[in-house]
Amino acid sequence: MYRVRVNVSGHAREYFPAERLGAWIELSEPCPVARILAGWSVSPELVMAVFIDGVKAGLESVAPNGAEILIVTPPAGG
Amino acid sequence: MRLETKDELCSGCRVCQLVCALENFEQNNPKMGLLRIIGHFPQPGRYEIRVCDQCGACRDACPVEAIYEVDGVLRVDESLCTQCMACVEACPRGVMTTHAALASPKKCILCGACAEYCPTGAIYDADTVAAEDAWRITRGEVARTVGGGLGE
Amino acid sequence: MNDGASAGGYAGQVLRVDVGGGSSRTERLPGEWIEKYVGGRGFVAKILYDEVPPGTDPLGPLNKVVMAAGPLSGVFLPGSGKTHFGAKSPATGGYGDSNIGGHLSPELKMAGYDVLILEGAAADPVIVVIDDGKVSVRPGGEYWGKGCIEAETALKRDLGEDFEIAVIGPAGENLVRFACISHDFGRQAGRTGIGAVLGSKKVKAIAIRGTHTIPLADPEGLRELGKSMYRACFSKPGFREWTPNGTAGVTDWVNEIGAFPTRNFQTSYFPEYKKINGDRLRADIHLTDKGCMGCPIPCGKYSLAKVAEGQAHVEGPEYETIAMIGGDCCLADINEVGYANYVCDELGLDTISAGNVAAFAMECYERGLLTEEQVGRPIAFGDLPSVLYLFRKIAAREGIGDLLAGGVKAAAEKIGGGSERFAIHVKGLEWTGYESRYAPAMMLSYATADIGAHHNRSWAITFDVARGRGKMEGKPEKVVELQHVRPLFDCLGVCRLQWVEIGFDLEWYERVFPLVTGRKVSWDDLLRVSERVWNLTRAFSIRHVPGWGRAMDRPPARFLEEPVPDGPAKGHLITADQMSELLDNYYALRGWDNNGRPTRGKLEELGLDDVAKHLWG
Lengths: 78, 152, 617
Known about the structure:
Distance between the termini of chain B: 17 Å
CATH superfamily of the largest domain in chain C: Aldehyde ferredoxin oxidoreductase, N-terminal domain
CATH topology of the largest domain in chain C: Aldehyde Ferredoxin Oxidoreductase,  A, domain 1
Structural class of chain C: alpha+beta
Order of helices and strands of chain B: EHEEHEEHHE
Helix content of chain B: 10-25%
CATH architecture of the largest domain in chain C: 4-Layer Sandwich
Largest sheet of chain C: 6 strands, mixed
Strand content of chain C: 5-15%
Number of helices of chain B: 4
Distance between the termini of chain C: 40 Å
Structural class of chain B: alpha+beta
Radius of gyration of chain B: 15 Å
CATH class of the largest domain in chain C: Alpha Beta
Shape of chain C: globular
Shape of chain B: globular
Oligomer: heterotrimer
Strand content of chain B: 15-25%
């Protein structure tokens, strides 16, 4: 059993499944962050950055069991 | 509580001054804040934080002994103060604060609100937080300081 | 201080300054403005609509510059440092406004005013000094000609460190149509050329110092709720991760989805983007973060940029500068982008329009539409000296700079040769940092933004990504929604980035509003205000600019006819027919007619009966 928790920062959070965010997700085996999103039908293009336990990672990174994954969506400004 | 600062973390947002004036005077007025933020721009490009370290220069300068100490915190007794401003001139950090709407000079009483709400951890309670951990305060990775007694 | 129209949040006074005569007068802040327009952008729109009649020369003495705070400006809550400037725009001839961060509106309120209106024009350079209740118009000749940062330094030295200052540079003095207003050593109200309007009035600077308390309806309640709002920000996922790179952090993403302005918007992907992204900014040139009043997530990045010509301290570069001077002019070095940013800041040029105009000139040069003789030297994409040369010529209005100082629309009209096809603007305002040929909602946002091409009224590109970039369905609905939500922050006088970037919940504003003002309003009530303001600004521009409507709600020909040539968006465009259908649906949703005019019914429904009379008789 593989458990991770995914959170999303930024206004594009509204395009992610709200009920899945911040809750522990259980999967049969470790997988890249991108595959978790694919399972939710969320476009990887909504992701600006990925952090795993506070360390910058990527969509293809595989978080360790029990990790906290943070997805930062793009900002608008300047 | 012992207020310490890390200038390099300060962004000049003045949340410290806003919360200080609300906490101590119920006024939304950063000009009444009992600490100073000084910008050094355009060069070299940094902020400087000045907080009261309870050094006692104000008490030593006061001719009427209106400034007294309770548990390491210096306070102003308004009933004795003659507004001579000797303390304001004596303060080495420029944080004895005067304002037209305040009866006498005011000073920091270590309520801790600035450290509690500084968004970057640039002001922190050195009794509870190590300097290198200051930036982690806002994230909740180290405990926030808890405010002491309020009011005078 | 407060006139009783509201229990708090407002200083309660409007300050009018006749910069020519040097006199000033104070008026009570009308209760009707508070109820119908809330503050900031709402006040600006109301004042300009009522007081600047059609036919007014944007650079004549009858135009007015309005500076307004919102009820939440300067209050102990996240991001309360926003100030709104407005004037009839010399860039478009229509309604113009621009927002700026920093500390101006809090200071204005502490000086006792919610609104400052500058009227008339001085014969010789002046500065306007507001020191609590004391207002003076003083000779400003010694500051005239100085760069923005140089002048702000001198003004702080002469008046006092504790003055907050808004200033223009040589570009504003020389009436460049995209001159900005600068504050706090590198923040700008950049858009729509309001710096030139100040220049036309010979106002070099506005200096403000205030010491009064900003009244609150419930100070104790606000103090506690304000604390909760900060704690809510601190606990948001992304609170620590977003800040280090600020807005520059989005550079990689915009390239990877193929929306990055490159080579005068010829394409939407800059292969060297990793050299000018947020990581490079943070690692190579960053000195300190710089926050506006009350900000928990300071996006301002103060930097030291070094190039062959020299080195410069600069606030930035922000994402928009990276896009328009980096990608669009093809500068592939964060130091070069930072240095060019500094040069614009000193000259008082909006980096967005300046980058766009320089890129336009370089494409004209490549195509032989501008010659070396006309330009005064060879110019080329990717060459920093070329870009700096153009900026300096523009600000001084020398040679080629005089031609370009009117912006790309005016320049294309003079240059001809089909250059209007790649003059990337809407209604005379230069396009900004999102190439939108594969983003219909974003394209519609630019086409319909009330000031001309601008991203911040409706930043809908993530909606395009989430709902399908090739799809048209649902896009107008989202654009209308965002055009009400996002500019509402400009009425309130707070920053929207806490909401946009870290997901700070909108419900907080509904909760905090009554504690500040004593008035209970729902979020829907506030959105209604924002819709009212949107219709008012539209009506202003319709009355001032012949043809402002459907025919002008459109992107340049390049975006409708040339598919993106390479990168992740290769092959895509939005056709004229698709654009037309987007507009049909957009107008219908807005209650506007098919030519993009607010109907009588819509205007009356919004309580704009006088506007209905003006438009429909």
